[in-house]
């Protein structure tokens, strides 16, 4: 999911709409905005579909006045696989004795089932099936006298990944979980405006200046042009999601002081060093494989070419929630550039192999078009474990790398050779010159290593075995 909030500007909701549009790649199912105006109080709108199809209508935007607003773009992840209902669409809202609070969450709470059970037993009435709603109910039960303190109380009980943006009548609040698994950045706009957003690309679109990242375990409370920072969870070291670098974030965002594009290009360089091959053409699976393919071509000296063309009017396939739509998606979205690949030995570069179904179809299309050989190169290690921190990977049984060896995968996909970048190679590409520190890994890489930095409590209860 993607979150965005702004304070201290006129018509804040319009800025939020733009910010969410820039974060649309993080969630395409639905979006919502809550705004606060001194006279008209809180107003909200929640809609299915793209930001541009909903939050561009003047008639709707006029209902969201005020100088403070937050928003959310959603895609459903582990635990909430059922079709999204409009009541699952964030931001969520709670009315407390000291006033209202709206809240938007990116990530996944790993003890949500246990919390929900406990809260329901004690009288909470849930409105949605979302794990994020727990936070509002925990806040309602806190005895603290102001909303930021209530949020701290609530979040201390929550395990897992959360980058949360919240707002009261006068404050914009941002928090990251102690490991800082999901991103959250702070920006400045105009004379006294501040912005919180999942990624820096959402600051760029509104012309905001990037100030810094919210740190893992940090809470910021912004009001009247001032920022108050605190550390509600005590000291901690971050374990940022390494897959944000590989796939999830937009390539024009800056994470940890590094360009995501440059990191992806560097993964391709590592791949070319680790898994060279004699070939005539390096070709990305667009768009997710493109920067790595550029790096591979540059390092290997093999010419780069767009052997697969993407229809720009399709979204990201993996974010479509059902398998059937995802399967159709491949053909609707990608087509082979026959004239280019015919007779060539092709190095095909993609960001990841998950189920392997896309990969197999793309290979078929390339061979049908007359390619002489297909060598598949993957810009991440084999995805052998599901993510429980906010990226929608399927159950372990459906992950190709959980079922097969690399040679079996090569045969099943049907390519002449298959290679994945090593975990160390990936760490080098994100700027860790000495690779992965296995005693104390610098990132979360559980989907590749199986080392979960926070126990996936709900999943263990459901029978998942680490
Ligand atoms: P596959 O060959 O595993 O079906 O699909 C791999 C391609 O689709 C990659 O380009 C990857 O970006 C995307 N993809 C498909 N399904 C998923 C999924 O469930 N999770 C993730 N992270 N990526 C996926
Ligand atoms: Fe990111 Fe993978 Fe960790 Fe999930 S398991 S947070 S996708 S690195
Ligand atoms: Mg892809």
Automatic annotation (TrEMBL):
Cofactor comment: Binds 1 Mg(2+) ion per subunit. Binds 1 [4Fe-4S] cluster per subunit.
Swiss-Prot/TrEMBL catalytic activity: 5-phospho-beta-D-ribosylamine + L-glutamate + diphosphate = 5-phospho-alpha-D-ribose 1-diphosphate + L-glutamine + H2O
Metabolic or biological pathway, per its Swiss-Prot or TrEMBL entry: Purine metabolism; IMP biosynthesis via de novo pathway; N(1)-(5-phospho-D-ribosyl)glycinamide from 5-phospho-alpha-D-ribose 1-diphosphate: step 1/2
Binding sites annotated in the UniProt record for Mg(2+): 288, 350-351
An example molecular function term from Gene Ontology annotations: amidophosphoribosyltransferase activity
Stretches assigned to the Glutamine amidotransferase type-2 domain: 1-225
Gene3D superfamilies (alphabetical): 3.40.50.2020, Glutamine Phosphoribosylpyrophosphate, subunit 1, domain 1
GO biological process: 'de novo' IMP biosynthetic process; purine nucleobase biosynthetic process
UniProt cross-references to PROSITE patterns, sorted A to Z: GATASE_TYPE_2
A Pfam family per the record: GATase_7
Annotated InterPro entries: GATase_2_dom, Ntn_hydrolases_N, PRTase-like, PRTase_dom, PurF, PurF_N
Active site per the UniProt annotation: 1
Known cofactor(s): Mg(2+); [4Fe-4S] cluster
Family named by the database record: In the C-terminal section; belongs to the purine/pyrimidine phosphoribosyltransferase family.
PANTHER family referenced in this protein's UniProt entry, alphabetically: AMIDOPHOSPHORIBOSYLTRANSFERASE
Protein name stated in the entry: Amidophosphoribosyltransferase
């Amino acid at each position: 999911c993607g979150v965005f909030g702004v304070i201290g500007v006129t018509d804040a909701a319009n800025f939020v709409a733009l910010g969410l549009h820039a974060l649309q790649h993080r969630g395409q199912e639905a979006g919502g905005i809550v705004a606060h105006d001194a006279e008209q109080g809180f107003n909200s709108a929640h809609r299915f579909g793209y930001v541009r199809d909903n939050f561009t209508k003047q008639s709707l935007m006029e209902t969201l006045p005020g100088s403070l607003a937050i928003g959310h773009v959603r895609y459903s992840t582990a635990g909430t696989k059922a079709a999204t209902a409009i009541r699952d669409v964030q931001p969520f809202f709670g009315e407390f004795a000291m006033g209202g609070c709206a809240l938007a969450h990116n990530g996944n709470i790993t003890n949500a089932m246990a919390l929900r059970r406990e809260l329901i037993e004690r009288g909470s009435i849930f409105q949605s099936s979302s794990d994020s709603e727990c936070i509002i109910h925990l806040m309602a039960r806190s005895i603290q006298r102001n909303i930021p303190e209530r949020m701290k109380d609530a979040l201390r009980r929550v395990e897992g990944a959360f980058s949360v943006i919240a707002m009261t009548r006068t404050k914009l609040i941002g928090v990251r979980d102690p490991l800082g698994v999901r991103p959250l950045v702070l920006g400045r706009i105009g004379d006294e405006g501040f912005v919180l957003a999942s990624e820096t690309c959402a600051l760029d679109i509104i012309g905001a200046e990037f100030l810094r990242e919210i740190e893992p375990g940090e809470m910021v409370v912004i009001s009247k042009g001032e920022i108050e920072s605190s550390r509600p969870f005590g000291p901690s070291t971050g374990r940022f999601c390494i897959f944000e670098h590989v796939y999830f974030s937009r390539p024009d965002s800056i994470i940890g002081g590094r360009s995501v594009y440059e990191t992806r290009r560097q993964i391709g360089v590592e791949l070319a060093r680790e898994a060279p091959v004699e070939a005539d053409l390096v070709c990305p699976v667009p768009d997710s494989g493109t920067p790595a393919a550029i790096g591979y071509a540059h390092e290997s000296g093999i010419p780069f070419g767009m052997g697969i063309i993407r229809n720009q009017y399709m979204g990201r396939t993996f974010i479509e929630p059902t398998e059937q739509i995802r399967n159709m998606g491949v053909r609707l979205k990608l087509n082979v550039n026959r004239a280019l690949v015919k007779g060539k030995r092709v190095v095909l570069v993609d960001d990841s192999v998950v189920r392997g179904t896309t990969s197999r179809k793309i290979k078929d299309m390339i061979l049908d078009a007359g390619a002489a050989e297909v060598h598949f190169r993957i810009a991440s290690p084999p995805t052998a474990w599901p993510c429980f921190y906010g990226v929608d990977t399927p159950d372990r049984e459906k992950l190709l790398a959980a079922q097969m060896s690399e040679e079996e995968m090569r045969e099943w996909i049907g390519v002449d050779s298959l290679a994945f970048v090593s975990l160390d190679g990936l760490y080098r590409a994100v700027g860790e010159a000495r690779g992965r520190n296995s005693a104390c890994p610098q990132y979360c890489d559980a989907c590749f290593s199986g080392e979960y930095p926070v126990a996936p409590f709900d999943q263990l209860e459901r029978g998942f075995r680490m």
